[in-house]
């Protein structure tokens, strides 16, 4: 029993420590709206164009995405798929894990559940806080995930950021734009909102259906409670 208690103590202590480390940088405030199909469609386009070359989403099927996002199969086939993919395929990649590890030092993880494991706020902040670092193999680092192996694939949109040089601060965490991208900072923020919104949907596609079904379930419970109350009164009236 003492060993079990000690193991539990170490587990919760290490979990708290990891959470504290990962939460040292303040996370962005993110509003997720899975009913905004236009946002989900824009996010899907960004995901396919910039993420799907290295990261898979192997638990999501193109056909399911078409149905949930209000797209036709032809729209998905023409705009969100490679010519070698089929509409009922999952969102996998052609890059082999061995090649990925040799090029990046680590195999890029599947992103199907990253929004559930990390959280939308973490994702949004992570994709916003890349900065130039000549000491890293990819030339960039990240304020949320220090020494990340991932290159800044969204740099054509955001541009290049650098740590602000502030007097009296040895390690500044404030970023400034060194080279402009094709999007303004506000446009980049909107693009990240759409991308994170889509990745949140990918993490739990059934959430859309559950949210639609929820009010009907609550209505059923309310009606059943009313019927049960009157049945109870009728059953116990001779006793009371």
Strand count, sense and barrel status of the largest sheet are: 2 strands, antiparallel
Based on CA atoms alone, the radius of gyration comes out at 24 Å
Query: Could you state the order of secondary-structure elements as H and E?
Result: HHEHHEHHHEEHEEHH
**Total domain units:** 2
Q: Strand pairing plus helix content: what structural class?
A: mainly alpha
How many helix segments? 10
Strand order of the largest sheet: 1-2
Q: What is the top-level CATH class of the largest domain?
A: Mainly Alpha
Share in β-strands: 5-15%
**What would the CATH topology of the largest domain be?**
Cytochrome Bc1 Complex, Chain D, domain 2
Residue stretches low in confidence (pLDDT < 50, at least 5 long) are: 4-23
Mean pLDDT across the residues is 85
- Let me know the CATH homologous superfamily of the largest domain: Cytochrome c-like domain
The total beta strand count reads 6
Whole-Å distance between the termini? 52 Å
What sort of overall outline do the alpha carbons produce when their principal axes are compared?
Answer: elongated
Percent range of helical residues = 40-55%
The CATH level-2 architecture of the largest domain is identified as: Orthogonal Bundle
């Amino acid at each position: 029993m003492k060993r079990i208690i000690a193991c539990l103590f170490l587990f919760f202590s290490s979990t708290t420590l990891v959470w504290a480390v990962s939460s040292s940088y303040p996370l962005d405030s993110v509003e997720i709206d899975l009913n905004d199909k236009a946002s989900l469609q824009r996010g899907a386009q960004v995901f396919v164009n910039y993420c799907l070359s290295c990261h898979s989403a192997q638990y999501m099927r193109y056909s399911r995405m078409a149905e949930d996002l209000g797209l036709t199969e032809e729209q998905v086939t023409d705009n969100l798929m490679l010519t070698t993919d089929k509409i009922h395929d999952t969102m996998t990649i052609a890059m082999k894990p061995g090649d990925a590890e040799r090029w990046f030092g680590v195999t890029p993880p599947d992103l199907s559940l990253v929004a559930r494991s990390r959280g939308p706020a973490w994702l949004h902040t992570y994709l916003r806080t890349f900065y130039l670092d000549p000491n890293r193999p990819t030339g960039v680092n990240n304020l949320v995930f220090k020494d990340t192996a991932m290159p800044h694939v969204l740099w054509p949109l955001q541009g290049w950021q650098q740590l602000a040089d502030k007097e009296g601060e040895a390690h500044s965490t404030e970023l400034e734009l060194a080279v402009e991208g094709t999007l303004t900072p506000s446009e980049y923020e909107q693009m990240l909102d759409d991308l994170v919104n889509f990745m949140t949907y990918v993490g739990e596609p059934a959430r859309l259906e559950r949210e639609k079904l929820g009010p009907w379930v609550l209505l059923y419970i309310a009606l059943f409670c009313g019927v049960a109350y009157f049945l109870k009164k009728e059953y116990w009236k001779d006793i009371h």
